[in-house]
């Protein structure tokens, strides 16, 4: 893999690391942020060696990131023993500085937010920064810079400004910069959470290529990331709850649920089919499930052509549908799908007969007095001379959920800001009910009526307590004090975080912070919602809470616009708008939009998991339509089985 | 290179490859000389040089001028004031209490042209010289101060890091400002108490963001073996080469030509 293989590096860091060598060994390690009151990690023991590809999973706040920093030698624990790269770094409560420094030189780290780790203004200089600090000769540095940028497919960006890169590009540069240190271990801390489908797929391919080069630790919420790893470690409340082969856990439904992890899609299909009386043998992968279904459903039986999803999509491009053998879709992303995994936690509105979520029952009691939708005609917007949005048409009626999808840089976030009345359009008509959002007066009038949730809204938290933060909005709107208190209590309980009211928002986990920020918007009791990537970076439980809030607000009669890179979430919308380079590339019902599989793939977008699975089944001779959600898939399969 | 299979880095624009120290000093020299531009011939000469530089910088001309427009417009507006306030020579146009003289037109044109020239030189320097190169050039130019015990190189590095995070923090400030505004929190409205709270709602998240960046950055510097004052190499050391010599000769030639054109009757 390493193209410059024959060269003997002169540096002190690049002692070749042999497969089988010890990378890290933790013994009864404990870590506390506050001197021993609360333990982020406790009694963690594990060993890493050779070129393992380890995936670390766990709920928000389970200690995953802390473990990543410990393994990278960037944090010393409070208890236990740490050996890194064959040297004792921490024992008997004493850190060994020189051993840590040596370990860090052999470890690369990639954050969820790669912007934070770019130090230079130019891509090539950033990759050269680490080798420069190792005092390597210039010629060696130049060859490493070229080799690593080539490895991540960013050689063409060599002389670009780092400030002008997209999120996915920045991440590739960050990986190249870390790899230029020739590490024996690469640590990826939730590196895929905010990537679009194309960038995520590229990252997974890169992980495959790195298997010959170094050990990898991937902290992730993504079951697909876990499925392609060689080893899976699950943390729960700071302790190791599972350490072993991914397939053994990923196919163990009971255990997955007990650990608060999302089930892989195929496992949810299997479970739901068994509940419906299908007799399926025990199985360990998606491919096995597909074969079992194919043998259960006689090919050519049943006519699925009159189901709700009769549109026949073009076959998915090879990249989308291949690679299912190991139980993972390459392009499909994990997602809430909001199918109740725990029947008690989510209202069972999506069972049997209601395969399309629009038939959610409207809750008549809490309908806001005024209901407004969005009316967008020929909308255009530019940013310092560059056209960001061009001729956008969009209607969102009250009670409707519209998903906006598109690759990074397609203009999704700008459209969301315009809909929220946060910027003036340069062209076209933008109305919220009868309020004209293109005028300053209209935007002032709309203030507080449109609930806007920015990307990573947890970053807007500021107050001393959760309750104070949630009260900020209604207080600004002049809501009487007693009602503010009632609204805060209601918003917190709606998101299931009433117990956090008196806590400081800064001591919560990332997922809890997200829910607090959403409660702050819910307390405004807005007439419409605009949410920008509300699910990204959340664990399964927090995702269910956010998805439930969105469903509830839609049922209240609010117009809801969700910007998402998650095709399974988009599949549950009433309509989908796909943007490409600031223009509407596809628009219509999810069934219509997702029937354009090839166009979506060209835009760097994927397909809902149910659709991908249906295509796998079709390849095995099962006659099936184009279901977009798990429920629709199940319905199709039931129909196909019926004699 | 020992191996032909090694991937090669792409080429850069000629101007981007010059020694940044030369570029800084030459830009200062060009800016000073810009003030000497007074006659149409001199203007034509300096305009030709400007387009030559844009070509060597491989910059898109239209996009370049669009990018300097926000700085240029207010300066040109000030230049236009000369139209009204300079009263030398015959009147060429008048309306109500205003009158424009020939001297006013000439002054406004000369002033406007010089300002535009100087702004463009500066913009070309910034467009072809990333912050890191600027700071290492500055630290090299300021290296005499090292003998006085000043850690010039560390300062330059810290300065370049700070510059790198300005746009990031700017974007985050904008996002938080909008998010709080959509919750009715703006320092533009309300009583003093409410405004103070809105200010806190802006400043606390920004402070938290700055701390978060600083913490991650220190982890990133650690993981890439950066140690203050430790010996390190430069993969692209500042180097005054043949191309830099050519640039210097061209600059001298330009200066002489400008002087000759200026002293023509």
Structural features:
heterodimer, A: 643 residues, alpha/beta, Rossmann fold, six-stranded mixed β-sheet, 21 strands, 34% helix, disordered N terminus, B: 265 residues, mainly alpha, 2 domains, two-stranded antiparallel sheet, 8 helices, 2 strands, 3% strand, flat
Could you please describe the fold and organization of this structure?
The complex is a heterodimer of chains A (643) and B (265). With 643 residues, chain A is an alpha/beta fold. In chain A, the strands form four sheets. Chain A has a six-stranded mixed beta sheet, with helices on both faces. In chain A, a hairpin with a 2-residue loop joins strand 4 and strand 5 (87-91). The longest helix of chain A has 16 residues, at 540-555. Mean pLDDT of chain A is 83; it is low at 1-19 and 301-367. Chain B is mostly helical. Chain B folds into two domains: 14-141 and 240-263, no CATH class; 150-223, no CATH class. Chain B has eight helices and two strands, in the order H-H-H-E-E-H-H-H-H-H. Chain B has helices at 20-34, 40-56, 61-85, 102-128, 131-141, 152-181, 192-223, 242-263, and strands at 91-95, 98-101. Chain B has a two-stranded antiparallel sheet with strand order 1-2. In chain B, a hairpin with a 2-residue loop joins strand 1 and strand 2 (98-101). The N and C termini of chain B lie far apart (58 Å). At the A-B interface, helix 2, strand 7, helix 3, helix 4 and strand 17 of A face helix 3, helix 5, helix 6 and helix 7 of B.
